[in-house]
């Protein structure tokens, strides 16, 4: 093990100048001793022709080391340093950002070859420099390192290799400087060139077998995932792939296999974080931590996140040293894994094989991490990790294959159960189909009988409908005949009453109300007859309106200008307002609105009628001062024969508004009841919309229409 410089055995004199003088003499003495007798303490056994051919030459007795924590020593001061301590072929460097210096005392026998090879592992050491003595007292420098361009030594060695020429007449001292940012285990080896070539071949063959096993495991688990669609298979394939990547990087083969330069320190950190993160996810998935151990599942997620954040930090800041922090996280992760494994082993017997398969890998990781931090020599970390991971992979794949066979057996059992259930269901279904067929046959018989009965009823209904239609036709013809028969005498009575009124205006004015009453009642009867005839015409199957051009403004002016003693107030535009429609039907629609307004308004209250053109529509508004329309009856008043209860004492048939709306819609318009204004009590406004004529009529057509309106 390396040691610090030994403490001084005795106190120096207390006077400062005496201390300085003693120090100078001491340095001069050490320098002269090193210059005049460099091999005074170099008494190593000579290397023979058989050494270094079947493995490394043991370096015990030939190797010494000293720590240079501040990296303050150079080759000149190191040759004079008395603090070297003997070590074997592997040493834990504790430079903490400095260097560790190794002194190799080598001598060969006369029959041994002059050229030898010095190897240094692991391949992710920061910088390794070899100082070989020259005949003139100087040193030849060879420098390699993880962050330096790789040198082609012709051997494809996974670590660092240096060539040394050894004299046969006297021992030679070589100095090796290893610079690292953290404490780690360095392995040194000494070979003949042929022995190193054989070592490289054996090592590459073993790693190739190991890597091939991992690739096979990844392929098998990938196939299992494609077959079973089990996420655990895919996750384990990724974990094994990460283990293989980490092994290739830590062993140095990644630098040989990849065609581009690789920063081994950065690759080591990233691959380690990836391996631990995927391993944590697989551990959580396999043991179902989320359902069985929710708190441990959350802790495992936090640890996986810490690995990912560590990898991200290393990528963003390549010089960042997180090895100590990551080792603490890994040890905490191992504690979580071990405690969970013990509890799972006790509570869930089917998972015991999984736990046993993980045991070698977990133990080796704990040994490597603890040994690295405490400086314990537990053998080669790469060999330990490779061997334990290989044992883990073999055991776990045995478990996975067993799981696959069990899943296949369960699948076959499930298929057999499903087949049995399907056959049972088919038998039950056939029985139900037979029962259903019998019930359907009975239902078809009943349905056939019911269809025959319904057809008989339908024939009777058709006969009744035809009889009703004939009766309705006879009724309409009778009603039309009676209406026409009544119309002539009623018109005569109305004309006579009007003449009587004009005669009484001069001779007996006090008798004028009597003929006026006759005129009003006769007019009401004539309106009733017109509505009945119009309703009969509306109900006819082949109603064909007689479309003509009509000037509504002139029609309203002539028809209602002197009507009802001046109660009808007209608001008409100066020009004509032309519509295309049946003059008789439109006159009935408008007269129904105005007559209703006069009938339901107080005797002295006026009725306002306005005419306007709004957006290519003719708008006729009729406003009264009657009792108004309740909100719940705004649409019902347009129903056929509907009358409000509170106005049932007023004469009427309930056809006026119904006919007015139907006639408006037959002309492409509509009749609506306007919304009452806020605070309005009583009164109603009906709005009649009709399409405005596209082109104006000729003078003859206008004259004819006016004649009809008059």
What key phrases describe this protein's structure?
3 domains, Heat Shock Protein 90, five-stranded mixed β-sheet, six-stranded antiparallel β-sheet, Rhopdopsin 7-helix transmembrane proteins, 710 residues, elongated, Immunoglobulin-like, single chain, alpha+beta
Q: Please, how many helices?
A: 16
Provide the number of structural domains.
3
The tally of beta strands, per DSSP, is 17
CATH architecture of the largest domain: Up-down Bundle
Distance between the termini: 133 Å
β-sheet strand percentage = 5-15%
> Uncertain segments of ≥5 residues (pLDDT<50)?
1-40, 699-710
Largest sheet: 6 strands, antiparallel
CATH class of the largest domain: Mainly Alpha
Topology-level CATH name of the largest domain: Rhopdopsin 7-helix transmembrane proteins
Residue-averaged pLDDT, rounded?
77
Strand order of the largest sheet: 2-1-4-9-6-7
Shape: elongated
Structural class: alpha+beta
What's the helical proportion of residues? 40-55%
Rg computed from alpha carbons, rounded to a whole number of angstroms: 58 Å
């Amino acid at each position: 093990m390396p040691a610090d410089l030994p403490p001084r055995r005795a106190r120096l004199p207390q006077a400062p100048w005496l201390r300085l003088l003693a120090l100078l003499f001491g340095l001069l003495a050490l320098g002269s001793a090193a210059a005049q007798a460099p091999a005074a303490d170099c008494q190593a056994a000579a290397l023979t022709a058989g050494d270094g051919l079947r493995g490394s030459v043991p370096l015990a007795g030939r190797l010494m080391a000293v720590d240079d924590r501040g990296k303050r020593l150079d080759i000149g001061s190191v040759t004079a340093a008395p603090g070297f301590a003997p070590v074997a072929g592997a040493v834990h460097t504790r430079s903490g950002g400095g260097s560790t210096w190794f002194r190799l005392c080598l001598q060969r026998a006369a029959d041994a070859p002059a050229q030898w090879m010095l190897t240094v592992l692991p391949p992710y050491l920061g910088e390794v420099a070899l100082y070989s003595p020259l005949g003139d007292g100087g040193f030849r420098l060879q420098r390699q390192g993880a962050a330096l361009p790789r040198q082609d030594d012709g051997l494809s060695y996974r670590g660092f290799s240096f060539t040394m020429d050894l004299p046969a007449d006297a021992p030679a001292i070589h100095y090796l400087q290893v610079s690292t940012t953290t404490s780690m285990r360095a392995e040194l080896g000494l070979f003949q060139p042929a022995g190193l070539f054989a070592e490289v071949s054996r090592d590459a063959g073993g790693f190739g077998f190991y890597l091939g096993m991992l690739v096979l495991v990844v392929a098998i688990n990938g196939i299992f995932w494609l077959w079973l669609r089990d996420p655990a298979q895919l996750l384990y394939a990724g974990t094994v792939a990460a283990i293989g990547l980490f092994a290739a990087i830590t062993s140095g083969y990644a630098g040989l296999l990849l065609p581009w330069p690789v920063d081994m320190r950065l690759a080591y950190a990233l691959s380690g974080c990836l391996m631990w993160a995927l391993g944590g996810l697989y551990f959580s998935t396999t043991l179902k931590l989320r359902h069985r151990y929710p708190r441990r599942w959350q802790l495992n997620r936090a640890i996986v996140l810490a690995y990912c954040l560590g990898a991200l930090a290393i990528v963003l800041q390549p010089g960042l040293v997180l090895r100590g922090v990551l080792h603490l996280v890994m040890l905490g992760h191992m504690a979580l894994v071990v405690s969970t494994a013990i509890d799972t082993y006790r509570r869930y017997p089917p998972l015991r094989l999984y736990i046993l398969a993980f045991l070698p890998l977990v133990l080796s990781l704990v040994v490597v991490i603890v040994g690295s931090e405490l400086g314990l020599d537990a053998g080669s970390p790469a060999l330990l990790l490779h061997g334990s991971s290989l044992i883990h992979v073999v055991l776990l794949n045995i478990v996975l294959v067993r799981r696959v066979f069990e899943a296949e057996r369960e699948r076959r059992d499930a298929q057999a159960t499903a087949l049995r259930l399907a056959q049972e269901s088919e038998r039950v279904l056939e029985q139900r189909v037979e029962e259903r067929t019998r019930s359907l046959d009975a239902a078809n018989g009943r349905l056939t009988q019911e269809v025959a009965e319904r057809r008989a009823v339908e024939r009777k209904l058709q006969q009744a409908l035809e009889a009703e239609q004939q009766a309705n036709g006879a009724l309409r013809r009778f009603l039309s005949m009676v209406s026409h028969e009544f119309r002539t005498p009623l018109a005569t009575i109305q004309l006579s009453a009007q003449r009587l009124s004009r005669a009484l205006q001069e001779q007996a004015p006090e008798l004028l109300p009597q003929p006026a009453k006759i005129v009003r009642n006769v007019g009401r009867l004539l309106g009733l007859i017109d509505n009945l005839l119009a309703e009969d015409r509306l109900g006819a199957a082949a109603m064909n309106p007689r479309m003509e051009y009509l000037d509504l403004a002139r029609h309203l002016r002539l028809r209602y200008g002197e009507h009802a003693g001046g109660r009808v107030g007209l608001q008409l535009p100066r020009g004509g307002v032309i519509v295309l429609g049946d003059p008789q039907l439109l006159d009935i629609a408008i007269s129904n609105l105005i007559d209703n307004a006069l009938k339901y308004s107080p005797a002295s209250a006026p009725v306002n009628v306005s005419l306007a053109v709004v957006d290519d529509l003719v708008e006729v508004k009729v406003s009264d001062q009657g009792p108004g329309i309740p909100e719940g009856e705004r649409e019902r008043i347009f129903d056929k024969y509907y009358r409000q209860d509170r106005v049932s004492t007023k004469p009427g048939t309930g056809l006026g508004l119904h006919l007015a709306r139907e006639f408006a819609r037959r002309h492409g318009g509509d009749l609506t009841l306007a919304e009452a204004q806020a605070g309005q009590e009583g009164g109603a406004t009906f709005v009649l919309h009709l399409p405005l004529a596209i082109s104006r009529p000729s003078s003859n057509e206008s004259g004819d229409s006016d004649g009809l309106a008059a």
